[in-house]
Design a protein that fits this description.
nine-stranded mixed sheet; alpha+beta; 14 helices; Glycoprotein, Type 4 Pilin; globular; single chain; 2 domains; Protocatechuate 4,5-dioxygenase, Chain B
C-alpha cells in the first residue's frame, strides 16, 4: 500500500461534486444515460477510427457533469489501459509542464495508480518539473478522476499540468516528450473549460445579448480543434485573448495528434443552461472526441521513416542556409530573416516538420601554409580534417517546417552559439555549411542497441540531457563506451553517469548535406 504522503488526496469532493460513492455513482449513471444518444450519434461517424483523445470540462458537476460524461463515454472503455491527463494550473503560474511525485490519486471510487515510470521518463527530459504542491491544490485534474475510474476501471494515469507556453514550438517540444511514451491503449484526456464571459472574469468582447456571439466565439475556437490546426488555434487565442483556461493544454494536444486526426463536438452548453446565476456571466463547456485512422503504434512507426530528400531539395536547403547567413551577418542583430526575403522557393517536402542541425565550418589553410596553426582544435566534437568548427545549433525534434528550421538554425549557428563570437562578413567566403536532417528520435532499451557512427544519441540522466550527431563518434575515433562517456561529460555529469539505472537513451539518424559536395 502507498503511504498517505505518496497519494494525492481529494480536495473538492463534497463541494464541487458528491463525496458519497453511492450518490455519486447514481449521479454519473444519470449523466451517462443523458449522454447516450449524443455519443451514439458520434460513434456512427467513426467508420472504424480509434478515439485517441477527449476534451472534458472541469467545473462543478452540477454545471458541467453532463458534458464531461459525453467525453468519457466516447472511447471504448475496455480498450483504455492508461490515461495521460492534461490540464491547466489555476492557482500557480509556471512555464512548461509539471508532474508530481505522488504515486496515486484518490477518487471517490478508490485510488488510481500513477504510471511512475512514465512520469520519471518525462522528468528526465528536463522539461517537466516536479510540483507536487501545485498538483495537490489544483482542481482541473481532480474533476476528471471520478469519470475515469467509473468508466475505465483500474487504469493508470499520467497527470500533467501545463503551464504557460509562449509559442507553438514550445507546445511541440512538450508534446515530443509525451509522444515518445504513447502506445495503443492510451487515451489523452484534456481538462478545459472554454470561454469565461462577463465582468466576473474580466472578459466582455461584445455587449448586449451575448448568447449568439458567445456561441460563435466558442465555435470558432472549436473549428481549429476540429481541423487539428495548431497554428490556427494558437493565432486565434492570441488574437481574441479568449478565456479558455486549458488553452495551453489544448495546444499540446494538437501537437500530439497525428495529422489525420479530427475533432468531433459531442456536447456544447454553458453554465447558464444549468443554473442562471445572473444575466452577465457565463462559462462554456465542450465535449470533444478526437478520432484517427492511425493508432498510436502506427504513428510511432511512421515517425521513424522520413521520406528521403531529393537532390533538388538538398540544393534548396543549402541555398536557404547561404542566403540566411548573408542576410543575418549583414544585419548583425541575430534575428532570422523572413523566408520571403530570401528569394528561394521550397517544395512541399521541405514544408514537412523535421529536426535539423546546421553546422558551420571555417575552411583551414593547407598544412604547409606558414600561417597554419596545427595546434588549433575544436572541443565540440565537430572538427574535421581541413576545417574547424565555427558554430552548430539545431532542433532535435520536428518543431517547425524543415525550411524554416534551417533558416532559424543557420542564424543561430552564426550569431548565437555561445562558444564562438558572431560570424563576420569577411568569413562567409571561407565557410563550409553542413545540414543534418534528422529522423525523429526513438527510445532504445540500452547502450547495446546504439550503433556507433550510424545513430545520433540522446542521453537523459539526472534531469539533464545531451546529444551527439551520428558522425561525432567516428570523427574522434570513439568506441561506444567513450562516446557515451563524452556524452555524459557534455551533459555536465560524471563520465560514468551513463551506466547508472537513471540513464535513458534515444537514437536518431541523420541525412547529411555538405556544401562542398555541391561546389561547381
Amino acid at each position: 500500500m502507498f503511504r498517505l504522503a505518496n497519494k494525492r488526496p481529494l480536495k473538492f469532493a463534497g463541494s464541487w461534486y458528491e463525496a458519497d460513492p453511492k450518490r455519486l455513482a447514481t449521479q454519473l449513471d444519470q449523466y451517462n444515460s443523458g449522454a447516450q444518444s449524443k455519443v451514439s450519434s458520434f460513434e456512427s461517424q467513426l467508420n472504424g477510427q480509434a478515439v485517441l483523445a477527449v476534451v472534458a470540462p472541469h467545473a462543478g458537476y452540477a454545471f458541467s457533469g453532463q458534458t464531461a460524461a459525453c467525453s468519457y463515454m466516447a472511447p471504448e472503455g475496455k480498450k483504455i489501459k492508461r490515461v495521460f491527463l492534461l490540464g491547466p494550473s489555476h492557482y500557480v503560474g509556471f512555464p512548461g509542464a509539471a508532474v508530481t511525485s505522488d504515486k496515486s490519486f484518490a477518487t471517490v471510487f478508490g485510488d488510481l495508480s500513477v504510471d511512475v515510470a512514465a512520469v520519471s521518463a518525462l522528468q528526465k527530459s528536463g522539461e517537466f518539473h516536479e510540483l507536487q504542491d501545485v498538483h495537490r491544490q489544483e482542481h482541473s485534474l481532480e474533476m476528471q478522476l471520478a469519470f475515469i475510474k467509473r468508466d475505465f476501471g483500474n487504469v493508470k494515469i499520467v497527470p500533467i499540468l501545463i503551464g504557460r507556453l509562449d509559442s507553438t514550438a514550445e507546445a511541440k517540444q512538450v508534446a515530443s516528450h509525451i509522444k515518445r511514451l504513447l502506445r495503443d491503449g492510451d487515451l489523452i484526456a484534456v481538462s478545459s473549460d472554454f470561454t469565461h464571459f462577463g465582468p466576473r472574469y474580466g472578459y466582455t468582447p461584445f455587449k448586449g445579448d451575448f448568447s449568439d456571439n458567445l456561441k460563435k466565439l466558442d465555435m470558432e475556437a472549436f473549428s481549429y480543434l476540429q481541423n487539428n490546426d495548431l497554428d490556427g488555434f494558437f493565432s486565434f487565442y492570441k488574437r481574441t485573448d479568449d478565456t479558455i483556461c486549458g488553452v495551453y493544454a489544448l495546444t499540446v494536444l494538437l501537437a500530439l495528434l497525428p495529422a489525420e486526426a479530427r475533432g468531433h463536438l459531442i456536447d456544447y452548453r454553458t453554465s447558464r443552461d444549468s443554473i442562471v446565476e445572473d444575466a452577465q456571466n457565463s462559462v462554456s463547456y465542450l465535449s470533444i472526441a478526437f478520432a484517427s485512422p492511425q493508432s498510436w503504434s502506427a504513428v510511432a512507426a511512421s515517425a521513424k521513416n522520413s521520406e528521403p530528400l531529393s537532390l533538388s531539395d538538398k540544393r534548396t536547403l543549402l541555398a536557404l542556409a547561404k542566403a540566411t547567413l548573408a542576410k543575418c551577418v549583414a544585419k548583425g542583430d541575430g534575428e532570422a530573416p523572413a523566408y520571403k526575403s530570401l528569394g528561394v522557393e521550397v517544395s512541399e517536402r521541405l514544408r514537412q516538420e523535421q529536426g535539423v542541425f546546421v553546422t558551420l565550418f571555417k575552411k583551414m589553410p593547407a598544412v604547409d601554409d606558414p600561417g597554419h596553426d596545427a595546434t588549433k582544435t575544436s572541443t565540440t566534437g565537430g572538427a574535421r580534417q581541413g576545417k574547424e568548427l565555427r558554430g552548430c545549433i539545431g532542433y532535435i525534434m520536428p518543431v517547425k517546417p524543415l525550411y524554416q528550421a534551417v533558416i532559424d538554425n543557420a542564424t543561430a549557428a552564426a550569431t548565437r552559439d555561445h562558444r564562438f563570437t558572431p560570424l563576420q562578413p569577411d568569413e562567409l567566403e571561407h565557410l563550409e555549411i553542413e545540414i543534418s536532417v534528422l529522423t525523429n528520435p526513438y527510445p532504445v532499451a540500452g547502450p547495446s542497441e546504439i550503433r556507433v557512427g550510424t545513430d545520433g544519441v540522446l542521453l537523459f540522466c539526472q534531469g539533464r540531457q545531451s546529444v551527439f550527431l551520428p558522425h561525432v563518434a567516428t570523427e574522434f575515433g570513439w568506441n561506444l563506451d567513450e562516446t557515451l562517456s563524452q556524452l555524459a561529460i557534455k551533459a555536465g555529469l560524471p563520465r560514468q553517469a551513463w551506466k547508472s539505472a537513471d540513464a535513458q537513451f534515444e537514437v536518431f539518424q541523420a541525412e547529411s548535406i555538405d556544401s562542398k559536395d555541391f561546389e561547381d
